[in-house]
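pls ignore typos typing on phone
PMT + seq
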Amino acid sequence: MLNGKNILIGITGGIAAYKICELIRMFKRNNANVRVVCTPNALNFVTKLTLQNLSQNEVGVEEFNIEQFKPEHISYADEADIMIIAPATANTIGKIANGICDNLLTSIACAFTKPMIIAPAMNCGMWDNQFVQENLEKLSSAGYYVLEPDEGFLACGYNGKGRLCELQKIFDKTVNILNGEKFLSGKKIVITAGGTIEEIDSVRYISNYSSGKMGIALADEAYKAGAEVILISTVNAEKPYGVIKVKSAEDMKFAVENEYDTADCIIMAAAVADYRAKNIANHKMKKADNVENITVELVKNPDILQSLCKRKNSVLCGSAVSDTVKEKAPVIVGFCAESENLIENAKVKIAKKGCDYLIANDISRKDIGFSSDYNEVSILRKDGAIKHLDRMSKNDIAKSILKEIYG
Ligand code: PMT
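k done
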């Protein structure tokens, strides 16, 4: 992932300095060239020898090196593709935000013109300090990537915000920046897939021909485009992203609603059964010689899509809704499976369900739709616009749908 990339890590004097040893290993395992510079105070928490061994490079601390003809801080800044300051103390953040260069690390930071990640870690009182916050604000608005600390138990004995964020977050951000930010970076997308399974007894069920391919294609493409993905699926899927296996419409509703508050977008590609058996026998129902017909009474399943839209629209229609609340509400996307009058029925469905987008596909065709590797769809937007996508692989359809929503 990071073949040949030059990563410069600046470590300042905080207890979280010891964690950076593991971060160096993560970068090295991904074939990056890692150089480390430390403030003199950082060496109270971690040794130069450890950092040198892990990075396989000399560690810079002294600003004035008589052996070098080019000023040391300029050589470091020229060579690196990205600089990460972690942990970044309130002291170093203050210096960088105000152009102070009083050691090798702050001098490099001042001369650095490429992307810089700053991962603060400090006591929660220091984090809340107005001047620290102003300095961070100044850095963020100047284009520095500030990765906020986590909340939790701090080494100083307090509980609060100030723990260095997860190393994986620093690693992922670095990869994203160096490989070009992807268009769904920072988005959380929840996608449903497959046909729900509605039990009749312990061995029989009602379901449909959905293979889950459309939903999984959407999840794969969203993940490739940098999103955090949660796939809620009735079919098994081994994936590098989150997969929640469900069975019935009711299970699916519970799982989707659980993700609602943190989702930026919810896509309902699953074929949810409209009805389920009113009573589920907990044993295998027996065939009787004298019984020619049996009746299974069905009751209506909850409409997951419709209730998601209701939840969203009721919040947005509230009297004093702030812009932040509006921005936080997830984009809701439904699918529409029809075997006749596709567009007319889809228009009725988008109005009835109240979703932002509805993806209409014709399930009467054998060359697309259920179980096929291909699809052909029309994307209806709630403002009435319609875009048609010709037949192509479900992955290409998925890419186009995601681009339509976020492109
Ligand atoms: O899985 P594949 O084999 O790849 O096939 C893909 C697909 C044909 C299943 C997919 O492209 C598709 O059309 N999915 C939606 C199927 C469906 O249930 O359509 P519908 O028109 O009956 O429902 C409209 C929308 O309401 C859908 O987003 C559905 O998920 C949702 N719904 C339906 C019923 C219900 N009780 N709750 C719901 O949330």
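The mean pLDDT is 94. The longest strand covers residues 331-338. more later
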